[in-house]
C-alpha cells in the first residue's frame, strides 16, 4: 500500500491538471453518488490535497471529494478523449476541457462539505500529516511528550495514524535508522536532544521520500550502487528490505524483526537496544 509521500505525489500531479480548472464532466461509478454529478459539473477545482493515505479534491462551492486508494486503487491522468486500458474498474472520472483524472479500483469514495470534514470517520481519527499540515520539529517534540504517546514503543507508535498520518512500514524503519534509535525506545526514554533528533529525521526522511518517489537512502550511499547497475530494490532504502546486507554506515548486517505483525529492519550496531526488557 502506498504511504504518505506517494499519496502526496499523486495529489501534486492531480493538482497540476485539475486545480484552477473547470470540471466539465463528473462521473461516479456508485449509484449513491450519481445525484452529485450535475452539482459538481461546471465548477472549478480549487485545491487537491493529501492527508495521510487519503486524497481530498476541493471544489469552489465547498464540496470535497474524499477518496482512499486502499490496496489496489490507482489514479490515472489521460487526455480527455482517451480511456484507461487494462482490467481495473473505473470508479470516478473528473474531466476538464483537455484531460481526465480517473480513479481506478478504489471503493472508498464519498462527498463532503469542507466544514464537515472533521466528522469524517477516518479523517477524524488521523493525526497531522507531515507533508501537508506545516508540521515543525517543535510540534513533533511536543506530540512525542503528549500523555497519549510518550509511553508507547517507537516501533508501534510510528505506525499509529493517530500520532502522525502517512507513516507506513518502510518509513518507520527508515526514520528509526536515521534517528539511531531501536524500536523498543519510548518517547519518555529519550532525552531532549534525542527527541529533537527524532523529530528532525521524521520530517527529513518523509520529505526525501516525497521528493524522490519513495527513495529514502542518502545520495552518497545510493549513487555508487546505481552506477554499479544494482537494482532499485537494493539502493532505494537504507535499511528497509535489506536484511543480511551490510549497513551503509557501519557494515553490520541489517536485521529483520516483526513488530506489530509487520516487518521492521534495523542495524543492531547503529540502533543499539539499551532499554530494559
Stretches with pLDDT under 50, minimum 5 residues: none
**Average pLDDT figure:** 96
The name of the CATH topology of the largest domain is: Helicase, Ruva Protein, domain 3
Number of domains: 2
CA-based gyration radius: 21 Å
Q: What's the number of helices?
A: 8
* SSE topology string: HEHEEEEEEEHHHHHHEE
SS-based class: alpha+beta
Per DSSP E runs of 2 or more residues, the count of β-strands stands at 10
Specify the overall morphology: globular
CATH architect. name of the largest domain: Orthogonal Bundle
- Percent range for β-strand residues: 15-25%
Query: What's the main sheet like?
Result: 4 strands, antiparallel
CATH class of the largest domain: Mainly Alpha
The amount of helix comes to: 25-40%
Taking strands numbered 1, 2, ... along the chain, how are they ordered across the largest sheet? 1-6-7-5
The end-to-end span amounts to 32 Å
Pfam family, one: zf-FPG_IleRS
Cofactor: Zn(2+)
GO molecular function: class I DNA-(apurinic or apyrimidinic site) endonuclease activity; damaged DNA binding; oxidized pyrimidine nucleobase lesion DNA N-glycosylase activity; zinc ion binding
EC number: 4.2.99.18
Amino acid at each position: 500500500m502506498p504511504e504518505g509521500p506517494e499519496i502526496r505525489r499523486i495529489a501534486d500531479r492531480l493538482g497540476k491538471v485539475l486545480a484552477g480548472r473547470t470540471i466539465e464532466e463528473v462521473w461516479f461509478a456508485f449509484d449513491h453518488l450519481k445525484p452529485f454529478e450535475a452539482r459538481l459539473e461546471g465548477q472549478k477545482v480549487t485545491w487537491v490535497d493529501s492527508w495521510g493515505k487519503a486524497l481530498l479534491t476541493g471544489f469552489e462551492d465547498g464540496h470535497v471529494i474524499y477518496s482512499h486508494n486502499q490496496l489496489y486503487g490507482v489514479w490515472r491522468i489521460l487526455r480527455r478523449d482517451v480511456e484507461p486500458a487494462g482490467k481495473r474498474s473505473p470508479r470516478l472520472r473528473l474531466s476538464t476541457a483537455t484531460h481526465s483524472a480517473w480513479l481506478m479500483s478504489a471503493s472508498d469514495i464519498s462527498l463532503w462539505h469542507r466544514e464537515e470534514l472533521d466528522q469524517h470517520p477516518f479523517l477524524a481519527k488521523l493525526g497531522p500529516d507531515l507533508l501537508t499540515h506545516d508540521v515543525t520539529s517543535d510540534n513533533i517534540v511536543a506530540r512525542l511528550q503528549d500523555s497519549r504517546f510518550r509511553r508507547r514503543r517507537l516501533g508501534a507508535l510510528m505506525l499509529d495514524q493517530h500520532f502522525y498520518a502517512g507513516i507506513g512500514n518502510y518509513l518507520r524503519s527508515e526514520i528509526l535508522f536515521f534517528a539511531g534509535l531501536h524500536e523498543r525506545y519510548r518517547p519518555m526514554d529519550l532525552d531532549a536532544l534525542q527527541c529533537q533528533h527524532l523529530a528532525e529525521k521524521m520530517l527529513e526522511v518523509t520529505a526525501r521520500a516525497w521528493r524522490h518517489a519513495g527513495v529514502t537512502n542518502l545520495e552518497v550511499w545510493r549513487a555508487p550502487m546505481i552506477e554499479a547497475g544494482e537494482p532499485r530494490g537494493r539502493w532505494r532504502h537504507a535499511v528497509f528490505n535489506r536484511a543480511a546486507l551490510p549497513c551503509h554506515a557501519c557494515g553490520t548486517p541489517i536485521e529483520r524483526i516483526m513488530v506489530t505483525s509487520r516487518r521492521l529492519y534495523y542495524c543492531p550496531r547503529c540502533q543499539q537496544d539499551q532499554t530494559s526488557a
